[in-house]
Amino acid sequence: MRKSDDVKIIVALDYSCAETAILMAKQLDPGKCHLKIGKELFTRCGPAIVEQTRALGFEVFLDLKFHDIPNTCAQAVRAAAELGVWMVNVHASGGRAMMMAAREALEKVSGARPLLIGVTVLTSLESRDLEELGFAERSTPLVARLATLTESCGLDGVVCSPQEVKLLREQRNKDFLLVTPGIRPQTAEADDQKRIMTPAEAVRQGSSYLVIGRPITQSRTPLLALDNIISSMAI
Fold this sequence. Notes:
By secondary structure, the chain is α/β, with parallel strands linked by helices. Helix content is 43%, strand content 16%.
């Protein structure tokens, strides 16, 4: 069993410089969490930030949400795999050809293959936002449809809000991963996330991995905050 099978928390390193991100990583425990590196940190620091966090023992979710023509997306995903990341994602709305090209690219990589996850609907979007963008469906049926497409393309799972987890867990294969941002302990503010849930609720609904940022990274004692969240999930 991979170490990651027992670690459910992914801490979002939403920082603008490597020094601050590494300082935070050093206050955490790779046996208790993974790390997420997103667009801003990766754009400013490049592949070096992945190498630095992996050197500390962490498995890294490279959250760049690739969305492009199939060949370009496939090559980007392959480049991420060659960095040694544990998980990488693409937008499911990029379509079948793009997702299958990304999956096939990873099958050609030597060594451990990263998990490939499809992003359904961003947790900052509500149904009225989707309507403004021209989507006829509300968020929940759209997420379900994109999850069905993602699974049919052979990807490992999806990113979805915790509010869609129960439905997707009932519909999808038991091994299909559900990665859920929008996780907030009861004492935390919602910030810019709209479709949110507590860690314990999300686990009960069937989340595979919980992406949590500010409730941990803005705490004066990040490791204690992480421990408290893990404890709350066991209740």
